[in-house]
Amino acid sequence: MKEWLRQNPTFVVDGLDATQSTSQQLRASLRKQGWTLQETDTEFRLIPPGAQYESGSVLRELLDEPEKDTNTADGEEAAFGLEHQLRDFLAQNLASIPVNGRRLRVYVDPTGRDGVEFPTAVGPIDILAVSDADEFFVFELKRGRTPDYTIGQLMRYMGWVSQTIGHGKAVHGVIVAKQISESMRYSVCVVPNVSLFEYEVSFQLHSSSLVPPPGAVG
Question: Which end of the chain is more exposed for a tag (fewer CB within 10 A), N or C?
Fold first, then answer.
């Protein structure tokens, strides 16, 4: 999608950039313009406004976006709203998040291109990181659940790293999601060098007033 937008910059709204902006930001922008986005394990489709497309529920399934539950608690809605920032948060805080006992940093290639949405011949890697021991870590991030094809995506990226820039170094895979499915746990238990992580989002508000608000009990 990013490559297509770079070739067709007229569809990128002001304030966004086809190279620097995240995929989530670009997708949201296209949807606001009336575009329909369909993604499967093997292809990604951009359907212009007014064209025929499948129903919204099917699109949400293809995009790995569960339908919004109107009965969801306020706290859960807040967490869902922050999930699109998962990639940027992990990339910016990678050094302070140990993975399997290792400290990681975002990979930077010889041209200066960093490992966030790192382009490969088999698709962009969400985050490509390296450890102090020069091991590669390929991150596959899911905003919600983990569909079965996630492991296939991850293995393709790991294979590409191993056969191109890896140069014989160890390549590890990391799947991060809001919820790891039971089927995914079974799949990964026989796949070497792949780890699963679930994330949680929470925040608190602390008063910073100089004086107690009216009616407050001292």
Answer: C
